[in-house]
Amino acid sequence: MRILVCMKQVLDPEAPAELLKIDPGSLRVSAAGTPEVLNPYDTNALSAALGLKSEAAELGDEAVEIVVLTVTPRPSKPLMLKALAAGADGVIALRVPEPTAGWVDSSSTAARLGALVREAGDFDLILAGREAADTNAGVAGPLLAGLLGIPLVAFAVGIRVSPGGTVAVDRLTDDGVLTERVALPALVTVSSEIGDLEPVDFRGISAAKRKPIRVVEGADVEPAGGPYLVALDRPRIERHCEMIEAETGRLAGTLLAKRLR
User: Fold this and answer.
1) How does pLDDT run across 214-232, given as a tens digit for each residue?
2) 186-190 and 65-72: which strand pairing?
3) 251 falls within a domain
4) What is the total count of domains within the chain?
5) Does a structural domain hold residue 166?
6) Could you list the residue range(s) of the whole structural domain that residue 166 is in?
7) Dihedral sign computed on CA atoms, order 166, 170, 173, 176
8) pLDDT, tens digit (0-9, with 9 covering 90-100), for 78-101
9) Whether the Cβ atoms of residue 184 and residue 167 lie closer than 8 Å to each other
10) pTM of the model
C-alpha cells in the first residue's frame, strides 16, 4: 500500500507578533530569525499515515510506504529530514517560483499538487491536513481530489483500511461520529483530533539521513481565478486610558479603554 501525505511549509504560527514583517511589494509575511515549520495540520495527516503503517505491521498485512509531497519555492532540507525522521519513507519536493504578489489561489495550489502526485506515481491513499496554518482556507485538498477524480472524505478523526480496497473514515458530526466508507484510491483530509506526531528519537534521526529526498523543478502557474490579495497590513491598535473620579470624590479604579484601528 502506498500513502502520499501532502505537507506544506509555513511560517511558524507561534512566531512572536512583534517579529512579523510584511513586504509591501510581495505581500509576503516573514519573521526575522524564525524558520518555516511543517504545517501543524499536515503533521496530523502524517501521524494518521504512520498509524496505518503500524497497524498493518501488527496484523502482518502488506507493507505500507509513506511518501511526503511538498510544493514550495524554498524546499527546506531540515524540515524534509524531520518528516523522514518521524517515519516517512521518502520525500518529493516540487520547487516552484515565488508566487506573484497577492497570490492566494487554492486552485493553482491544487494544480501544482496534482502535478506532483503524477510525478510520485501510483498511490492508494492521499492524506492532507484539514487546512494550512497560514491561510486557513481548507480547500486545496478537496480541489486536488476533484482534479484527480477520486473520492474525498474531509475532517477525519479516524481512518481504517479495510479488505477489498476500501477505507473507513470516522468524522465528527453534531450527532456523534459518522463512519463513511469509500473505495481506494481516495483522498482524506485529517482533523487535528486524530493526534500529533510522536517525538522523534535518535534512531529516527539517524535513519532519516538514509532515506530518499527528491527535488523536482516546477513551472510557474498563473492564478486560476480564485481570491486575490490586494493589501495586507498589521492591525494598528491604540489604547487610551483615563482615570474617572467617583461620586464620593475619590479616584475610582475604572479604566476606559478605547480601541482605535
Assistant:
1) 999 876 555 556 666 777 7
2) unpaired
3) no
4) 1
5) yes
6) 2-234
7) positive
8) 999 999 999 999 999 999 887 665
9) yes
10) 0.84
